[in-house]
């Protein structure tokens, strides 16, 4: 099998991670959830009692990031959602995380999901997918996930948080969330994980068939 790079971007809870894991398994590629990198940096700033928009502190935490940090269990809370998005708007933080993301795909190719994979991290990716779903569908999905983790949240609060984070991610100056020109769009509002996978696998197979 060719060592290809599959770049998957899109807003929060659109189904990027679910799809990325399925593609990685099916095409035997390593998988990197790049959102985790920003979540770890946000978490580390909070642990230091700092403000996630503190440029010096957030950049220092991004530069000191290690592989083991990605295995922390407390990275999927509303507090970390907001901290991740705040540190992600700092250019020095993004720059510090770029090498790690690029070298991840060096040996065997990779599937990476995030916000700027097809635009900034791997503009030459073999396959670029832009995953979307309506805000209400995404909020319902994230609400169900958080409730399953035992969190006491309301659907309204989850939806408001998602909308605010999407807006911040789309309008920031540094690597804003947007589809690459050559990205294939998949709207998962009415697609379950199997159907989303089938649509994506089709694009990957076409890329693999190219000489
Ligand atoms: O899982 P969800 O889609 O809610 O978020 P995530 O992928 O874990 O990303 C958390 C935050 O990190 C996002 O809201 C972005 O602000 C930031 N992020 C980014 O800026 N660039 C990436 N490649 C990945 C995440
Ligand atoms: O990575 P991202 O934040 O974009 O989303 P995800 O973690 O892949 O998916 C969020 C939730 O939606 C998970 O609980 C998935 O099982 C669910 N999902 C779905 O219901 N239908 C899909 N086509 C994809 C994901």
UniProtKB/TrEMBL annotation:
UniProt keyword annotations, A-Z: ATP-binding, Cytoplasm, Kinase, Nucleotide-binding, Transferase
Organism, scientific name: Acidiphilium acidophilum
Pfam families reported for this sequence: Cytidylate_kin (PF02224)
Domain Cytidylate kinase: 6-195
Lineage per the UniProt record: Bacteria, Pseudomonadati, Pseudomonadota, Alphaproteobacteria, Acetobacterales
Family matches, as InterPro entries: Cytidylate_kin, Cytidylate_kinase_dom, P-loop_NTPase
GO MF annotation list: ATP binding; dCMP kinase activity
Tagged with keyword Nucleotide-binding: yes
Nucleotide-binding listed as a keyword: yes
GO BP: pyrimidine nucleotide metabolic process
Name of the protein in question: Cytidylate kinase
Reactions accelerated catalytically: dCMP + ATP = dCDP + ADP; CMP + ATP = CDP + ADP
Amino acids binding ATP: 10-18
Subcellular location: Cytoplasm
Family: Belongs to the cytidylate kinase family. Type 1 subfamily.
Main localization of the protein described in the UniProt heading: cytoplasm
Record's GO cellular component terms: cytoplasm
EC number(s) on file: 2.7.4.25
């Amino acid at each position: 099998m060719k060592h290809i790079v599959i770049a998957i971007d899109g807003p929060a809870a659109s189904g990027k991670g679910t799809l990325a894991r399925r593609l990685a398994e099916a095409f035997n590629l390593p998988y990197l959830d790049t959102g985790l990198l920003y979540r770890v940096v946000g978490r580390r700033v909070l642990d230091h009692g700092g403000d996630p928009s503190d440029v010096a502190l957030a950049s220092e935490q991004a530069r000191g990031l290690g592989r083991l940090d990605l295995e922390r269990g407390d990275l999927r809370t509303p507090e970390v959602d907001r901290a991740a998005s705040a540190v992600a708007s700092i250019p020095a933080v993004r720059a510090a995380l770029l090498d790690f993301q690029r070298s991840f795909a060096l040996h065997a190719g990779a599937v990476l999901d995030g916000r700027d994979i097809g635009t900034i991290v791997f503009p030459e990716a073999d396959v670029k997918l832009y995953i979307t779903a309506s805000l209400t569908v995404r909020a319902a999905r994230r609400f169900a996930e958080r409730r399953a983790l035992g969190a006491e949240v309301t659907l309204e609060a989850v939806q408001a948080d998602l909308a605010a984070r999407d807006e911040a991610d789309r309008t920031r100056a540094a690597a804003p969330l947007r589809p690459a020109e050559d990205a294939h769009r998949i709207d998962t509002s009415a697609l379950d994980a199997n159907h989303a996978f089938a649509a994506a696998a089709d694009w990957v197979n076409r890329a693999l068939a190219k000489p």
